[in-house]
Design goal:
Elements: H1 9-14, E1 18-22, E2 25-30, H2 34-43, E3 46-49, E4 54-59, H3 63-70, E5 83-89, E6 95-105, E7 108-113, H4 118-127, E8 134-137, E9 142-148, H5 152-159, E10 172-177, E11 180-186, E12 195-201, H6 208-215, E13 222-224, H7 226-235, H8 270-279, E14 283-290, E15 300-302, E16 308-317, E17 324-331, E18 342-347, E19 350-357
Parallel strand pairs: 3-13
Antiparallel strand pairs: 1-2, 3-9, 4-7, 4-8, 5-6, 6-7, 9-12, 10-11, 11-12, 14-17, 14-19, 15-16, 15-18, 16-17, 18-19
Length: 366
């Protein structure tokens, strides 16, 4: 089956991107190199094509009640023009997907889902809709670009007819952007930096790439591929579906208790989560700083006695910190997950120490 292409495919070719199959899409993994792209986002601004992500519209009477039933967070707290991060839940307390909810009007929501889960999420949401909301796939109607980094908002402002520099983090507005009407500008992102995610009507999206690159030239904007997107998100300790979370992991185990509102009333998976909280979590996702070696997904974690107590889910060499960082699940017993605890990771038969740390590996003060 032929790989799908975003409206910006030819721009990636012109920029010399190395293209790979990602969730059925032909996507740029890098252009000038992961480290250079990563650092440019941290120091100024980068442009990402994230049009492979899915968009699902939930609208009409019962839209809020439908989403309240489906996700872990308290959707009723989201004002019009604001967004919310949440876990789409199954009945067993596992995570169907992690999603961003954008409230466009009283009963009109745009749900951004992961590329690999587009079809699955749509079918699941439609099958678990007791409130007669309209749930439709709009993934092909939108292209999506992320303009990330401290100078990202300045680039967006040059191309927008709205005062985007005045927008709060997490807010969204409708605007004309880069000459295209009907765009949505969201001050959200996946990199640990300030910036915007821009939803553009797909039929008119292709020319916006070069317009953004031109507007950002004064700040050294560069195109950024999937490889640097992954190192950026891991430094910020943003979880990745399929690596750090899936339908067998609960948001409590994954450190997503902050988007899990057990007191909001009933929702899918709530009963299982309440029991898990009462009985104690069997495992926890922890951050690790690894000595000498880069830990990778699937590497086994050992305690001081040499017993296996967990496994790595994501790992890399941090371009910002110059250290090896990782996420992994460990048994919650005996202080395994306590910050400061030192474990051992088996990296293809070579052992390295791995110290549990709290919070993001990298965070920029604002």
């Amino acid at each position: 089956m032929a790989l799908r292409r975003t409206p910006f495919f030819h721009a990636h070719e012109r920029a010399g991107a190395r293209l790979v199959d990602f969730a059925g899409w032909e996507m740029p993994v890098s252009y000038q190199g992961t480290i250079a792209e990563h650092r440019q986002v941290r120091e100024s601004v980068g442009l990402f094509d994230v049009s492979h992500m899915g968009e699902i519209r939930v609208a009409g009477p019962g839209a809020l009640a439908c989403l309240q039933h489906l996700v872990s967070n308290d959707v009723s707290c989201v004002a019009i023009g604001q967004s919310q991060y949440a876990a789409l839940m199954n009945r067993g307390g596992g995570i169907v997907d992690d999603v961003f909810l954008y409230r466009l009007a009283e009963e009109d929501w745009l749900v951004c889902v992961n590329a690999s889960n587009r079809d699955k999420d749509l079918a699941y949401m439609q099958a678990n809709n007791p409130h007669s909301a309209t749930i439709e796939d709009q993934g092909d109607a939108w292209a999506q670009l992320a303009i990330q980094g401290r100078n990202g908002p300045k680039v967006v402002q040059l191309l927008s007819d709205r005062p985007v520099l005045e927008m709060d983090r997490g807010s969204i507005c409708k605007a004309t952007f880069a000459g295209v009407e009907g765009c949505l500008l969201a001050r959200t992102g996946y990199t640990g930096e300030d910036g915007f995610e821009v939803f553009i009507p797909a039929a008119h999206a292709a020319p916006t790439w070069e317009r953004i690159m031109g507007a950002g030239e004064q700040w050294g904007i560069v195109p950024v591929g999937l490889a640097a997107r992954d190192t950026l998100r891991l430094e910020a300790r943003n979880v990745l579906y399929g690596n750090d979370i899936d339908d067998t992991t609960s948001p409590l185990e994954a450190g997503l208790g902050w988007v899990t509102k057990l007191g909001k009333g009933d929702f899918l998976g709530r009963e299982a989560l309440v029991l898990q909280k009462e009985n104690g979590l069997p495992v926890r996702l922890v951050g690790l700083v690894v000595d000498k070696r880069i830990a990778r997904q699937g590497n086994i974690l050992l305690n001081a006695a040499g017993d296996a107590v967990g496994h790595i889910t994501s790992g890399t060499r941090s371009p910002s910190l110059g250290t090896n960082i990782a996420l992994g699940y460990v048994k919650a017993e005996k202080g395994n997950a306590k910050p400061g605890n030192v474990l051992t990771v088996d990296v293809r038969g070579k052992l390295a120490s791995a110290t549990v740390v709290k919070g993001p590996f990298y965070s920029r003060p604002y």
